[in-house]
Amino acid sequence: MLKVFIDPGHGGTDSGATANGIVEKEVNLSIALFLREILVLNYENVQVKMSRDHDVFIPLHDRVKSANNWNADLYISIHCNASSMRTRRGYEDFVYTKSTNSLELQDVLHGSITRTITIPDRGQKKANIFVLRETNMPAILTENGFISNVEDAKLLQDKTYLKMIARGHAQGIAAFFNLHPTVSEIMYYRVITGNFKTEEEALIRQGELLETGIETFILIEKEDENKEYSVVSGSFQSFQKAHEFVQVLQEKEFKSFIVTVIIQ
């Protein structure tokens, strides 16, 4: 049974950042609650514990102690960013500076989240953060946009967008730990090696790939006058396998990306 410890940052008397009518502690909690719901309802053999599930102040050492005593397999701290530079926006995540057990987790989660959300990718980072340093298990802190930026703030006030953020987290966790979806949801990872406006362009790319021994098929994404032709070079149940295949394609100088497909 996988144990996931979710830590919504701040709470109670600690509001976190505030800007554009947004209080960070509230956004953090909303994302965390959505994430718990997605994990529990859509995946088998997963338990979730939260540092807080309502507006209450929890000291950092108590959060860490709770996760360590529970013997969690993953610690994920959810935050939003803020800056005096109002143009600064986007998503980033952190692992402990000297971490050796969280780097692969960061690779997978970062990829899953940035493919799911619509704000700029600020990259994968390291920092000497207490909750990352003192936890015994792989740990990551996600910064899900700048409430100080008008564009990010508008998104962070949208519950649908917060659910999207949570789903990106959940899919990354599921991929890293190879969680199996319940019968209500089937998820796999499709590798796309080019989107084209014409079928002729897609056929050219398909031929180029075939010359290297890679079989593909062309998927028509839109059934109207604005059709888009995607060259699908692989489908995988494991995100890691899909990621490794993308690396192989990139070595052959074929730019590719992964799309998460969910069948309900």
Automatic annotation (TrEMBL):
The organism's superkingdom is given as Bacteria
Q: Which GO terms describe its molecular function?
A: N-acetylmuramoyl-L-alanine amidase activity; peptidoglycan binding
Xref: CDD domains: MurNAc-LAA
A Pfam family hit: SPOR
Coiled-coil blocks? none
Hydrolase among the record's keywords? yes
Of the GO CC terms on this record, one is: outer membrane-bounded periplasmic space
PROSITE patterns, alphabetically? SPOR
Does Hydrolase count among this protein's keywords? yes
A Gene Ontology BP annotation from the UniProt entry? peptidoglycan catabolic process
Its name, as the record gives it, is: Uncharacterized protein
Organism listed in the record: Priestia filamentosa
Its organism's taxonomic lineage begins at:
Bacteria, Bacillati, Bacillota, Bacilli, Bacillales
